[in-house]
Amino acid sequence: MAETVTFKNMALAKAINESLRRALDTDPKVLVMGEDVGKLGGVFRVTDGLQKDFGESRVIDTPLAESGIVGTAIGLALRGYRPVVEIQFDGFVFPAYDQIVTQLAKMHARSLGKVKLPVVVRIPYGGGIGAVEHHSESPESLFAHVAGLKVVSPSNASDAYWMMQQAIQSDDPVIFFEPKRRYWDKAEVNTEAIPGPLHTARVVREGTDLTLVAYGPMVKLCQEVADAAAEEGRSLEVLDLRSVSPLDFDAIQASVEKTRRLVVVHEAPVFFGSGAEIAARITERCFYHLEAPVLRVGGYHAPYPPARLEESYLPDLDRVLDAVDRSLAY
Amino acid sequence: MTVESTAARTPRRSAGSDAGATGAQRTTSTTAKKAVPAKKATVAKKASAAKKASAAKKAPAARKTGGTKPRSAEPHLVQLLTPEGERVRNAEFDPYVSGVTPEEFRGLYRDMVLTRRFDAEATALQRQGELGLWASLLGQEAAQIGSGRALRDDDYVFPTYREHGVAWCRGVDPTNLLGMFRGVNNGGWDPNSNNFHLYTIVIGSQALHATGYAMGVAKDGADSAVIAYFGDGASSQGDVAEAFTFSAVYNAPVVFFCQNNQWAISEPTEKQSRVPLYQRAQGFGFPGLRVDGNDVLANLAVTRWALERARAGEGPTLIEAFTYRMGAHTTSDDPTRYRHDDERAAWEAKDPILRLRRYLESAHHADEGFFAELEIESETLGKRVREAVRAMKDPDHFAIFENAYADGHALVDEERAQFAAYQASFADADGGK
Hints:
Chain A is an alpha/beta fold. Chain A is built from twelve helices and 14 strands.
């Protein structure tokens, strides 16, 4: 049984596990599907023990075929199920991209609202774990660009728990990006606390001089940046977007109207990344408030590099501080 | 025999390869009926003697995997009505249609005639500018009506965009099919009203939806079945292969109904496969068979057989309905650029409607009055379709934003408001004049 208690120190991966357990327990229509999610419990153990407790018909080891996983999940959703599918790694989602973009995203609209597809696609994403090729990417913009999809990414265990609950309850398909390098980060998770809406940003740290906006794995980095900047007498506000589509522009606007400066941080390449959309819209909304152009820190327009080079590719403390300095110099 | 028709096309492969041999056999004038008993014993012996024989040589196992008896190495075609309308006896499949009454025979005929009439009307409406595009099913009526009439109400259909005959069998108002071709919507019916999913345009995608749906049926403990329609071109899609894999692994109650109409726009089936398509099932571990796609009775029989397997928990089946796309791929296509008229002429002699009419007449199942009444009904349908399409209004501009999401989306709301303000600005300008 899912218990309603407060866990003092729960790892992000375990929080998702508990959230899936609760969903499987409370809704017989919820299914968990993916490669190795059963006996193995997933390569990151996010689904550990679920098949043992809920059986093979609800926690389903699938053939190794991502399009098949998402395509059959669509069929199961049409039959009334609520599948939560796991794509093993970010770089492996593309065989399923067709089903996600042409089918999953559009079914509600093309059926004039008659068909709902409550499918959650879980994708461990991002770098920083020294992995081989195709295991460190951040493709969230490729999904945020598609109408009909919702795209979220928790930054901490508590959000991971609750956002998964909300994603499963959503009648829209949700692409759920899990910050794999934060899987083992622990935080307090209160399974009784009533969460705010799924697609709202949260002010992680208040500040007055500049706003740092991030989501997923970069939120922790931005908090560290804010700490470092504070030592130099700079007060940075940190916003955890939590949702990439829809984006909580109101929250960003409110923060920028206060601080007048904005730096967006994500691991994904800057070019056509979510930061570009944020920069464009915030420039439009806050043109007369801004003291500096919106700056972005992210990956380069180059294939994700081999692990020994990823520290140079990924945003880190110094690169974000550098952007902060450049913004403040205007 | 239907198999002869491929002779009109160019040989596909150099002699000596297994596929070439298969192709050559397909083009022989020997009827399948004659060939089967002669070949059976030899082939069965061969298959057991030489396990390392090529896939083409082991072809009979296509049916073996399902526990039924082996067939000839050359494509065997299930046929119950010859093009001349003669009833061919078939010990295996006759039981599935032995109870078909004269009234039901007339019903199948009526279905095919009205479907063809509707289809012709839609083609005409496209030429008149009332539809942007139309994908004609001309020539495929028997495959669609035969399989469609095998279904129960609680079964679920996943069509491509050409299953107008199946839609008819499901009770979908044919005028509802025309909205997407006119451009007023992207699917104008509620899939759950008739258990007939929306047309799928991305080739082969629906095979996976059907499989997933069937997995759900099995989970629910229901004895409904699911049928996925697709074509010879789609058989090359990864999604179709993955659907075969998933349905086999989970033993899903799904029937894969492939209408091999010989052409994927301009590409002949030889560009999709070097084995007859139904033999693909063998490698996935479930039975496949080829049926004369222009024989409505045979399609009814084999689909009933496959659905029965699904309901009995025996898993998926692949049916290859060997037929012919008599018309263009769509109204935008020009088949004269890639195929000869003589091929079409050869298939015209095997017309699905003509052969059932011959049978109805020779069996005295229908009189002149029936055909005359049907002609009137047909004209009435054409008129109704015409009027319905012409009366279809363009949707309101704001329909762009409707239903993009089930639970709403802040950006959609924002853009809808901006669009509304923009539209309203014209009203202001008009008012100022």
